[in-house]
Design brief:
Elements (H helix, E strand, L loop, with lengths): L1 H15 L6 H14 L5 H31 L1 H12 L4 H38 L4 H17 L9 H10 L3 H27 L22 H21 L6 H17 L12 H7 L2 H35 L2 H19 L1 H14 L4 H17 L9 H12 L6 H26 L5
């Protein structure tokens, strides 16, 4: 009960953020209480840090790259191109925005897609004089596709990185399983979002209200380097994975190169249009503290009873066959993620799967189902992921307020069919690539 109480109080402070208290400080305070009361020991600190450090610093590096590209106008340029490809047809623009969000989520992680793309799309919709209902449809779409399309690569979500590292899944192996599964997730997301919002999407919009995409580019040097650097980064992930090179190191090198171009190091800063101090100060350093602190709190909860209870549930599911094990694991962790946040739920799922004695194929299905459930499950509630909480905060700052009730009305209807279809696709596909 003590471990549960510490977790609940810590989670409340993380969500509430009284007086602007950073999520990292709240999580560290919870970890401190857990250490002081013996819920976790000092030896657990090293264990937890070994689980989270690579994922955490990879995320920070990806956000640094994303912010530099955003400051240079890269994402605005892409969004304006998409708006022009829509040809003034709102019903054509809708799937194009979904595909743009999916592409950004795959490479820049779900948080980057939600937090960077949404304000840009909102600004474009304002210039196009979209009605309120239409703007809401596109806004919610940006938030949902950021998570439901975050399956394909290890770097597409913190959940993916933690899971791949914990179970030693190579970058290429992960992609071979999850890229096809992600295609199903994106397709079903597009379908359910279209069915839900089809009456709110305007039939036409005025192309003449948009500037040319090239006008959005604020730093040509960064823009010219973006595509080759991102291509090299993706290749490097595949090439370095067999040698055990940490993903954080590969991504960190790319971030340093991007900062070098942005700051024009070696040329006295001439021509630089992006303040590196602003970029570095704006990096999500609180996530480093949050990852260590919150995972320690959850590790204590797992030591107390949650891991053993979860293991018993997974063992029972496995006994019912691989289909039930896959669907059951995904749905169970999705529900867990929706009420306790997907980052701690990922650790709980990983520890339980690791402890469960199940057949090899079933175990692998459960591992990937844990990823699917923790990537998609958070869309059920606003507290399911930090990305959603931050996304809602950004929208409120832009004057687009979405209440928790409005969010859950959409989330509870849209998430289950996407989750179920994706888990079925995983169950069908994974045995084919054994």
């Amino acid at each position: 009960m003590l471990a549960l109480a510490i977790f609940i109080v810590t989670l409340v402070f993380v969500i509430w953020q009284p007086r602007g208290l950073g999520i990292g400080w709240s999580a560290l305070a919870g970890a401190g209480v857990a250490l002081a009361t013996g819920v976790v020991g000092w030896g657990d600190v090293g264990t937890v840090w070994g689980i989270v450090w690579d994922a955490t610093f990879t995320f920070v590096a990806l956000i640094v790259i994303s912010v530099i590209l955003d400051e240079a106008g890269f994402f605005a340029w892409a969004a304006l191109h998409v708006a022009r490809w829509g040809g003034g047809n709102g019903r054509k623009l809708f799937p194009l925005v979904v595909l743009l969000g999916a592409a950004i989520a795959a490479m820049f992680a779900n948080d980057g897609a939600a937090l960077l793309l949404t304000p840009i799309v909102l600004a474009i919709l304002l210039r196009l004089d979209f009605p309120a209902a239409g703007a809401m449809a596109f806004t919610v779409t940006c938030g949902f596709i950021a998570d439901t399309a975050s399956l394909p690569l290890v770097v597409s979500n913190l959940v993916n990185i933690v899971t791949a590292n914990y179970f030693g899944i190579p970058f290429g192996r992960y992609a071979s399983v999850m890229v096809p599964v992600n295609l199903v997730s994106v397709a079903v997301t597009l379908l359910v979002l279209w069915l839900w919002f089809r009456r709110d999407i305007p039939a036409r919009y005025r192309l003449e209200a948009l500037e040319q995409p090239r006008q959005a580019i604020r730093d040509p040097a960064i823009f010219r380097s973006a595509f080759p650097l991102l291509a090299l980064l993706l290749i490097a992930y595949f090439v370095t994975a067999p040698f055990g090179v940490p993903i954080a190191l590969v991504t960190g090198v790319a971030a340093v190169f991007m900062m070098a171009i942005a700051g024009r190091w070696g040329s006295g800063g001439r021509g630089a249009s992006i303040g590196l101090t602003k970029v570095l100060l704006g990096a999500p350093w609180q996530i480093v503290l949050f990852s260590l602190g919150m995972y320690l709190v959850v590790y204590g909860l797992g030591n107390a009873w949650l891991t053993s209870a979860s293991t018993a549930v997974l063992t029972w599911l496995a006994a019912q066959g691989s289909f039930v094990a896959t669907i059951g694991t995904g749905v169970a962790v999705a529900i867990l993620a929706s009420v306790m946040n997907n980052m701690p739920a990922t650790l709980v799922g990983a520890l339980a799967i690791d402890a469960a004695e199940v057949p090899a194929l079933t175990r692998e299905l459960m591992i990937y189902a844990n990823v699917v459930g923790n990537d998609l499950g958070p869309k059920l509630t606003p507290i399911g992921s930090l990305a959603t909480l931050l996304w809602l905060h950004v929208l409120a700052g832009k004057g687009q307020r979405i209440t928790w009730g409005q969010y859950m009305k959409v989330g509870l209807i849209l998430t289950p069919p996407v989750l179920l279809a994706t888990l079925i696709a995983l169950w069908i596909w994974l045995p084919l690539v054994q």
